[in-house]
Specification:
With 758 residues, the protein is α/β, with parallel strands linked by helices. The protein is built from 21 helices and 22 strands.
Length: 758
């Protein structure tokens, strides 16, 4: 008897009709509720009816308990506008009061009602381990199955063609795929070829270490040429191919084409090539549509906390027609097998019902999965019946405002305040090609850079939270910041680390400042960030000389919207120039930061050595502003890059290591090997024919030396006369050998005694 959800009289509603759900292998152990105590048990948890688990329920009390906030009719309207976010932001996201959160690429924020409803659910229901057969376990197991199907439909994935495997996060999903590919290759004796895009996250780049053949595609055009050629330069016949790329760059927010999986499936016939889409960044603010299985990726990795803020759980969406490459995984955990023999034999039988039953090792984080159900409900209630479509439109508008606002900030000499890193084809405001992420570096008026960590720290002090660094995107850093492999090795040798970075090296930044927007951001957040950049880093100092009378010139200064003039004699030098007399600095309090900064004007008159200021808050031209130190007029250019100079930085350390570990051959050998690698890293990597011949001869000589190190006769060298065979030693008897050994040992003992002076 199939124990589906409708056989179990539980106070849980589902958006999918229970008869349509396929029964998993665990359902055979779930009771159909004929226990005598179940009536009292149901009464004890009847309050769960007030915490409906799906927004599709037709009950009138859906999410209207005393612990939750009722949904307003405007929030679910079809014509929901971005301004509606301000209506519920203070209520649903009280943690944002007085703060500006702009790091949704790391994780977005959870709503207050999500936590309240999840808490009420756990308090009102008794849940057990889904692997057990008790009633609380059956309640948990059936609910996990229903949420799995609902999560698939959240991405328009038909459960008939797709399956969803719950994992810890997107990285765990990627690792699961490559582990299965490696085991499949070993079982079928088929080598794996791996290709990845240069915008890939570190988790995708790390897959290459599990394969011997891999390739990095540096441009979209390179991928298109590869696809149009039928896989030329990719996997060969009798090889297994895997191509992975991100749906959205986590550094610049550029959205990559989603038609590559379908084109690869249609064009490649020489070797089967599967596609892995990293949708962690894309799915956070854009709808992921898997309606058509023919054009969908074979595997999709994502993290739900980037979409809803909570729970911390991820998923691997598997196209069922491609699931056969996952079947050869060797490892198995609890709950993934039907039988195991471990004593006197090694045999096991895997579950054969569904993909997720064979891939989900151990007990699922079922409480977090229950929170996922509430998260989808709250998302739909707050952001409309099609929440991801609204969020995509909303964040695209904010992203365009942010990009245009930063571009408009320029120093007085016309130098842009920020260097923005974006693809040439990216258009802010168009969600098809660009997400709501802006990566930039702040620069001074003379073009010199300000450290990205310094900008992040300054923003953090003002309650503005962004992210800075290399963002786990090595290809993006190398491309947009123009770092060559030799320079990156030299930077590492000089002490640069991702966890302890050197912000600027060789006149170039080693990371960026990233602002990533989310569903609950509003236009006021953009204004706060732009004002912070303007007040903290924008230089508006300009000078203009005006001749007011013969022999007297008046210099007008304008600094950050504040202007003043100083009459000068012909021999007067302006402040800041060589030989300029210093003006008296009146004692004054720094200007108070407010929401509006009106321009202030002041005039001065030189009477001896006394200066009168009509506005006490005006900063004279030679007074140092503690918040904005003056810039040097001419900054020396960065010296040319010489890799050998940076290699020398480690020489004193290596000499000390040699002195301390002179007896440790392993340390000395490691230093020597590193020196050889560095000495050859910057030379021509293509050896000549003579060098290759010499190398082979050295290798052969070393092999011969090591092979005959025991003193056995060596083979004759070609071109030389064969030596005379040595005279064979005479075979001595056992008594003669023992006597000779005894005499030799006695003589050795006598020598030792004489050396000791005894």
């Amino acid at each position: 008897m199939d124990n589906t959800a409708d056989n179990l009289d539980i106070p849980i509603t589902t958006s999918l009709p229970s008869p349509k759900r396929k029964t998993s292998s665990r359902d055979s152990r779930r009771p159909s509720v004929t226990f005598p105590y179940y009536a009292s048990y149901r009464d004890s948890i009847s309050s769960a009816e007030d915490v409906s688990t799906t927004s599709d329920s037709e009950l009138d009390h859906d999410y209207t308990t005393d612990l939750t906030t009722p949904a307003s009719s405007e929030s679910c309207a079809e014509d929901m506008q971005p301004d509606d976010v301000e209506d519920f932001r203070d209520r649903e996201y009280p943690m944002l009061k007085g703060k500006t959160y702009l790091d949704h690429g790391g994780t977005t924020l959870y709503a207050k009602s999500l936590i309240e409803e999840f808490s009420a659910d756990l308090i009102s229901n008794l849940y057990g381990n889904p692997h057990s057969a008790s009633t609380p376990s059956a309640l948990a197991g059936h609910r996990v199955d229903a949420i799995r199907e609902r999560a698939l439909r959240f991405f328009n994935a038909d459960p008939e063609h797709f399956d969803l495997v719950f994992v810890a996060n997107a990285t765990a999903a990627i690792k699961l795929v490559i582990d299965c590919f490696r085991d499949h290759a070993a079982a079928s004796n088929t080598p794996v070829w791996y290709g990845y895009h240069k915008d890939a996250h570190t988790s995708l780049v790390g897959v290459r270490e599990s394969t011997k053949m891999h390739r990095c595609f540096t441009t979209d055009e390179e991928v298109d040429i590869w696809i149009n050629s039928g896989g030329l330069g990719g996997p060969r016949a009798r090889q297994l191919g895997l191509f992975a790329y991100p749906g959205q760059s986590n550094m610049t927010g550029r959205r990559l084409p989603l038609n590559w999986p379908g084109r690869i499936r249609k064009s490649f016939h020489k070797a089967p090539t599967y596609t892995l889409l990293d949708a962690a960044a894309l799915a956070s603010t854009a709808p992921l549509d898997l309606t058509n299985p023919a054009t969908a990726p074979d595997f999709v990795a994502l993290s739900f906390y980037k979409i809803f803020g909570f729970p911390n759980v991820g998923a691997l969406i598997v196209r069922k027609e491609s699931a056969h490459v996952l079947e050869s995984r060797r490892y198995f955990g609890g709950g993934t097998v039907d039988m195991i023999i471990s004593i006197n034999d090694t045999w096991h039988a895997k579950k054969g019902s569904t993909i997720h039953d064979r891939m989900e090792d151990g007990t699922l984080p079922f409480h977090s999965i229950f929170a996922l159900d509430h998260a989808m409900n709250v998302h739909k209630r707050l952001y409309g019946p099609d929440p991801m479509k609204f969020i995509s439109m909303h964040t695209a508008q904010l992203g365009r405002q942010l990009y245009e606002g930063i571009c408009a900030l320029k120093h007085a000499n016309g130098t842009p305040l920020a260097r923005i890193y974006k693809d040439d084809s990216a258009v802010y405001g168009d969600p098809a090609v660009q997400g709501a992420t802006v990566a930039f570096n702040v620069q001074r008026a003379d073009g010199s850079l300000i450290g990205y960590e310094d900008v992040e720290q300054a923003a953090d002090d003002q309650g503005i939270f962004v992210r800075s660094g290399s963002l786990c995107n090595p290809g993006g850093v190398a491309t947009y910041l123009n770092w060559s492999p030799a320079e990156m090795r030299a930077a590492y040798a000089a002490g640069h680390r991702c966890t302890n970075p050197t912000q600027i090296m060789l006149g170039k930044p080693t990371g960026v400042v990233r602002v990533s927007l989310g569903a609950m951001n509003i236009a006021a957040d953009i204004s706060i960030l732009l004002r912070f950049l303007e007040e903290s880093y924008l230089d508006r100092t300009t000078t203009a000389e005006v001749v007011t009378s013969p022999g007297l010139t008046e210099t007008v200064y304008s600094t950050r919207g504040r202007s003043f003039s100083i009459p000068q004699s012909p021999g007067f030098s302006p402040p800041g120039s060589s030989g300029a007399p210093s003006l008296p600095q009146p004692v004054q309090s720094p200007p108070t930061t407010s929401t509006a900064l009106p321009p202030l004007t002041a005039s001065t008159s030189m009477n001896g050595s006394v200066a009168k200021w009509t506005d006490s808050v005006t900063i004279p031209p030679n007074t140092v502003d503690p918040d904005h130190p003056p810039e040097s007029p001419q900054r020396p250019k960065a010296p040319p890059f010489i890799p050998a100079d940076y290699v020398k930085l480690r020489k004193p350390w290596e000499e000390e290591m040699r002195r301390q570990y002179a007896t440790n051959s392993n340390v000395s050998m490691e230093i020597k090997v590193r020196e050889l690698e560095e000495s050859s890293a910057y030379r021509n990597q293509t050896p000549s024919v003579k060098a290759r011949k010499f190398g082979r001869s050295v290798v052969n000589l070393l092999r011969t030396k090591s092979h005959f190190a025991d003193g056995s006769p060596r083979p004759p060298i070609p071109g030389t006369p064969s030596p005379m065979p040595p005279e064979l030693p005479r075979v001595a008897s056992g008594s003669q050998r023992s006597r000779r050994s005894f005499e030799k040992e006695r003589a050795q003992f006598a020598d030792n005694v004489s050396q000791l002076g005894m």
